[in-house]
Specification:
The protein is built from 17 helices and 15 strands. It is of the alpha/beta class and 563 residues long. The strands form three sheets. Strands 8-7-3-2-1-10-9 form a seven-stranded parallel beta sheet. Strands 11-12-13-15-14 form a five-stranded antiparallel beta sheet.
Length: 563
């Protein structure tokens, strides 16, 4: 069994990390926005679930121009979410319950309200204050054109003109000016930030936009020639490491410097990169002398198809192995359509068009989507490596695709000219009880409206309910702790078409039927199944089963009973 003790430096290698989006987790003070005290009040839910750590999305001072990723103070707490004392209390309670604490670090940009940026605007062109960011004169006779054709991830130009005529770079929202990582003050300030949170007991960091820090700022700045703003297509069209602002080779020197800080603590602080880069490049971020781990987006983006998923799994394990890291697996997060809805969309579906239709074109059968999501969950939790669980997926929450446009908060909606609906549908606050103005999220209404269907999915409704999705997660995580051994898998030769079948060290195996027809159930003791199985018979479609041989704990053929 994996050693996840507090002193184990490798606790992260096969951990289950639960992502908390604090503004949507729980509201303790009744203002409609989730907060740190709300997180603390519900840490027992995470402990009972059986996860090893919580990853806290940004809770720093922010005007919420990008859901908290526009940070005005990297070493503070947004007053609407609490205080540093509240953070310390939350971390202490998490550690008391045996949970590690991972926080988001946002090094690519700040908020435009950050004191540094306000100073830069006042100081004017050529100042030391402006050198902390990326300011440039415009093109055209009067400097009226952006310095380059670089595009924002959220849509439109990545340049915004200041009042004095210079332009500043923002690869995301205009309220998120990019930092200049060639500036020594910037580097020193983030070293201080890493030490600040590590000294407060933080066990690790999730590094936002890890592939974006280093930029080619040599004059004249290079145009991209119409290459898209983000995604692997932007990187596959240029030599590796040479894109003007994504995944440049120079970024790795920054993370080697950070690793020295991480390793000064006992146990060393962990880190995981959010780096939207091809497989071979992702391994660089996960090297032991850099961040140590990187998110695996190929798996998240794979269709519900046995061949595609097998290729993603095999490739991801090889990439992690080449870096000396463990693989990472994730099905949902704060930036993507929840997998209880996404996995049922036909291959090739334009997810933005689906969101704009309110989730009606095509319609998604909630029961079928949940069945597939449960099967995907057991498959993910059987894989060697770390699993990242997004808040609410343990309740089987679907994407809230029909949010009225009047309530949308994601800047993508406005910045794209109302062409892209954005990510609010996966950020709708959690239901804790089947009643109340926000289903137990807080004493009043929530900052985003929750659908009526959330009542039946509330924690209080599912807790203790046989075959509920919450109990499936609890059972799977209990059983996973008993079964974990080694970081490899062995594919079963000649598995039926549409079936993923692999063995793990310790006489157990995982079988997932992704096809449209039942298949014979392989021999073995049923340890856990994603949906109730018949007393005798084949493995139904959209079902995962864990099988064992000669294990010392009992079995069960229902979806939430590991024995």
């Amino acid at each position: 069994m994996a050693d996840l003790s507090s002193r184990n430096p490798d606790w992260w290698r096969q951990a289950v990390i639960y992502q908390v989006y604090p503004r949507s987790f729980a509201d303790a003070d009744g203002d409609g926005l989730g907060d740190l005290r709300g997180v603390t009040q519900h840490l027992d839910h995470l402990a009972a679930l059986g996860v090893d750590a919580l990853w806290l999305s940004p809770f720093y001072p922010s005007e919420l121009a990008d859901g908290g990723y526009d940070v005005a103070d990297h070493r503070g707490v947004d007053p609407r979410l609490g205080t540093l004392d509240d953070f310390d209390a939350m971390a202490a309670e998490a550690h008391r319950l045996g949970l590690k604490v991972v926080v988001d670090i946002v090094p690519n940009h700040t908020s435009h309200r950050h004191p540094w940026f306000q100073e830069a605007l006042r100081a004017g062109p050529g100042s030391a204050a402006r050198d902390r960011y990326v300011f440039r004169p415009g093109r055209g006779r009067h400097g009226e054109l952006p310095p380059t054709d670089w595009q924002s991830v959220f849509g439109g130009s990545a340049w915004r003109r200041a009042a004095d005529g210079e332009w500043y770079l923002h690869l995301f929202a205009p309220e998120q000016p990019d930092l200049n990582w060639e500036n020594d003050e910037v580097r020193a300030d983030f070293r201080a930030t890493l030490r600040f949170w590590s000294d407060r007991g933080v066990d690790g960091f999730r590094v936002d936009v890890a592939h974006g820090l280093a930029k080619d700022l040599a004059e004249p700045l290079r145009d991209t020639g119409g290459i898209s703003a983000t995604g692997e297509e932007a990187l596959l069209s240029v030599a590796p490491g040479s894109h003007p602002y994504w995944d440049r080779d120079e970024v790795h020197e920054i993370y080697r410097d950070w690793r020295k800080i991480f390793d000064a603590y006992t146990p060393p602080r962990t880190a995981v990169a959010e780096a939207w880069v091809p497989d071979a490049r992702r391994a660089l971020y996960a090297r032991p002398d850099e961040l140590g781990q990187a998110f695996n987006f190929e798996y998240l983006q794979a269709a519900w198809d046995a061949d595609e998923l097998r290729d993603a799994i095999t490739g991801s394990l090889a990439t992690a192995r080449s870096a000396g890291a463990s693989a990472t697996w994730v099905l949902s997060n704060h930036d993507v359509v929840r997998h209880a809805s996404r996995l049922l969309l036909p291959p090739g579906t334009d997810e933005n068009a689906w969101l704009l239709s309110g989730g009606r074109a095509p319609a998604v059968d909630p029961a079928a989507g949940l069945r597939r999501a449960r099967a995907a969950t057991l498959l993910m939790l059987a894989l060697p490596g770390s699993a990242y669980v997004y808040q609410g997926e343990e309740l089987g929450l679907p994407e809230v695709a029909d949010l009225p446009t009047a309530v949308l908060q994601d800047p993508v909606w406005e910045q794209s000219g109302h062409v892209r609906k954005g990510r609010d549908g996966c950020r709708v606050p959690l239901p804790w009880t089947p009643d109340g103005p926000s289903y137990g999220f807080g004493p009043g209404a929530a900052w985003l409206p929750q659908p009526d269907s959330f009542a039946a999915r509330a924690v209080a409704v599912q807790a203790g309910a046989e075959d509920s999705t919450l109990e499936l997660y609890r059972a799977a995580l209990r059983l996973r702790r008993k079964l974990l051994e080694g970081e490899t898998l062995t594919w079963t030769p000649a598995a039926p078409a549409g079936v993923l079948d692999f063995a793990r060290t310790g006489n157990w195996r995982c079988v997932t039927n992704l096809g449209g027809r039942p298949v014979p159930l392989p021999p073995g003791e049923v340890l856990l199944a994603s949906t109730p199985l018949p007393a005798a018979g084949p493995l139904p479609p959209d079902t995962t089963v864990w099988l064992g041989r000669g294990l010392s704990f009992g079995s069960g053929r229902t979806s939430a009973n590991p024995g």
